[in-house]
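$ run holo --ligand "magnesium ion" --emit tokens
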Amino acid sequence: MTQNEVLEEFRSAGALLEGHFILSSGLHSPVFLQKMFVFQDPARTERVCRALADKIKQAFGPVDYVVSPAVGGIVPGYETARHLGAKAIFVERENGVFTLRRGFSIPEGARVVMVEDIVTTGLSSRECLAALKEHPGTLLGAACLIDRSGGKADLGVPFVSLVQLDIPAYEPDNLPPELAALPATKPGSRNLKA
Ligand SMILES: O=P(O)(O)OC[C@H]1O[C@H](OP(=O)(O)OP(=O)(O)O)[C@H](O)[C@@H]1O
Ligand SMILES: O=C(O)c1cc(=O)[nH]c(=O)[nH]1
Ligand SMILES: [Mg+2]
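-- output --
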């Protein structure tokens, strides 16, 4: 799949949103990729995750375990693992910290790749990778569907994406006036209260 074909899947799913968004990192942006509009369609999800699995195989070889950060990483992690013939597990926040819960474990010697949905600053990915340091297995690298950092996010491990975009994101005290004029929404799950 070309970058344009992947982006067209997002576009035709209605997942390319414009407005004023507060991102997981606390940065503000006029653009939000609502990946759940892609993931609500299993056929569309299969197409993009098969392409991601192909890219992962090329970059890292065989994979035994895909680990993803909840919530957004769970569906693409599972679907990508299906195409890799790998297991799919996820980390979720316990007192704010990504943790392998539910009795999930990684066997000694397993070949592991982290799969994210979207990377903006890379913060969530780095938090997920930090959780994996506590567990056995060989971390081969990381992958995501869309890297919107323009290639600037540094995960500290080899990293592949299906699409690389450079989408503006601003510190909250440095918003352009046209963005500040719009009401802001925070679509993601970080810091959501029960
Ligand atoms: O690279 P970053 O700056 O960390 O931003 C990207 C992260 O933001 C979103 O997650 P979010 O925490 O909003 O919650 P979600 O997974 O429930 O959508 C997305 O799923 C990535 O995990
Ligand atoms: O940085 C984020 O939180 C983020 C950006 C984006 O475009 N989509 C998303 O789900 N999260
Ligand atoms: Mg997420």
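-- notes --
Residues 42-60 form the longest helix (19 residues).
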